[in-house]
Amino acid sequence: MWFQDFFPPNVCPINAKANTFYGIMFDAGSTGTRIHIYTFVQKSPENLPELEGEIFESVKPGLSAYADQPEKGAETVRKLLDMAVDAVPPHLWKKTPVVLKATAGLRLLSEEKAQALLLKVREVFEESPFLVPEDSVSIMDGSYEGILAWITVNFLTGQLSGRNQHTVGTLDLGGASTQITFLPRFEETLKETPGDFLTSFEMFNSTYKLYTHSYLGFGLKAARLATLGALNMEAVDGQMFRSSCLPKQLEAEWHFGGVKYRYGGNKEGETGFKPCYLEVLKVVKGKLHQPDEIRGSSFYAFSYYYDRAVDTDLIDYEQGGVLEVKDFERKAKEVCDNMERYNSASPFLCMDLTYITALLKEGFGFRDNTLLQLTKKVNNIETSWTLGATFHLLQSLGITY
Ligand SMILES: O=c1[nH]cnc2c1ncn2[C@@H]1O[C@H](COP(=O)(O)OP(=O)(O)O)[C@@H](O)[C@H]1O
Ligand SMILES: [Ca+2]
């Protein structure tokens, strides 16, 4: 065909088989907006749809940075959506749903500002050639964020098909919130868990009763503000927030969620791992539910767990790897007690690693030797809640079961 030369093989319309379908899912995260365009093939009605590929692109900052310029925020979404116009064959546009789900960044904005942003995004969707389902632009409930990431990881690792399902728990550390999700194996866990931490979820003809919780304000960047004592303070003009987790001589400014903060090191006082750990501990200690069952089990961890492990050479960027909780602590000590040596990468590296250590140990109650499988991609697909959300969407539209 004459047009084959104009398209890369994976998006060439002639290669789109009759049983191929697409789903477009936007992740409006607190630090960036991302588009995931998934291609599926349903080979037979009785099997799970097969995921053929993913096209992924992202922009920074996230929508919440456009709290006062909703149209500009929606423009960032329009640019990403243009990619889908090129990727999906025109005859399937009308059958391809497009959805955006916002997470903690928008949860933290005022209702009015968040709704203004969502409305503008909805207008962009309406102008596109795609299928715009009801409720296509929304703020996602925190418990879904955890469940859908759990679905993604367990689908990609093959745990949701066949009889011997050994599902794995998931840990997601975003900018503004963090999620923990697993399938409890013991009756005890169900008994001792608060009701709102347990959710039944139906997927691929099975029902899973999952333990999941999203802790708003416990994402890595929100935790920086909490450690500095600046969370929920409309940065008092010129006020300086200091911490023993930062290089002594540092004085700088930081923008998060549309607010400017001034921060710096303890010029005269202490710095290093010990005082930093005590500071960070105040943010997490006693604030999170600790299910006994997780102490010994291994978890999949991604997002900022992954990024900070890469930044400090604990794992390889492409490969990921397996770590123990104590590896984060060892690295935190190394970085915090040699702060000047490391501050070229990010002045927050010591604080971030110390927070991750405290969150895992004192927050969730993991053991020093609990194994964490750090993964960014499984079979070249991003480990993000967006794939689980797309399955859920296709199921609700009757495109798949
Ligand atoms: O599709 C993805 N694949 C892998 N990592 C992702 C993807 N989307 C977001 N992340 C990671 O999520 C973290 C940022 O969190 P996010 O901006 O989603 O905040 P939130 O979840 O608190 O709203 C970063 O570590 C970033 O690398
Ligand atoms: Ca996220």
TrEMBL record:
Task: Look up the record and name the cofactor or cofactors this protein needs.
Answer: Ca(2+); Mg(2+)
Q: Which residues bind ATP?
A: 175-179
- Residues the record marks as active site: 145 (proton acceptor)
Task: Describe which pathway this protein belongs to, using the record's wording.
Answer: Protein modification; protein glycosylation
Under catalytic activity, the entry for this protein gives: UDP + H2O = UMP + phosphate + H(+); a ribonucleoside 5'-diphosphate + H2O = a ribonucleoside 5'-phosphate + phosphate + H(+); CDP + H2O = CMP + phosphate + H(+); GDP + H2O = GMP + phosphate + H(+)
Answer whether the UniProt record assigns the keyword Glycoprotein to this protein. yes
Q: Which InterPro entries match?
A: GDA1_CD39_NTPase
Is Magnesium tagged as a keyword? yes
Which residue stretches, if any, does this entry annotate as coiled coil? none
Q: What is its EC number?
A: 3.6.1.6
Location(s) in or outside the cell: Endoplasmic reticulum; Secreted
GO molecular function per UniProt: nucleoside diphosphate phosphatase activity
Which function does this protein serve?
Answer: Hydrolyzes nucleoside diphosphates with a preference for GDP, IDP and UDP compared to ADP and CDP. In the lumen of the endoplasmic reticulum, hydrolyzes UDP that acts as an end-product feedback inhibitor of the UDP-Glc:glycoprotein glucosyltransferases. UMP can be transported back by an UDP-sugar antiporter to the cytosol where it is consumed to regenerate UDP-glucose. Therefore, it positively regulates protein reglucosylation by clearing UDP from the ER lumen and by promoting the regeneration of UDP-glucose.
Q: What family name appears in the similarity comment?
A: Belongs to the GDA1/CD39 NTPase family.
**Assembly and interaction partners:** Monomer; active form. Homodimer; disulfide-linked. Homodimers are enzymatically inactive.
Protein name as annotated: nucleoside diphosphate phosphatase
Instruction: Give the species.
Output: Grus japonensis (Japanese crane)
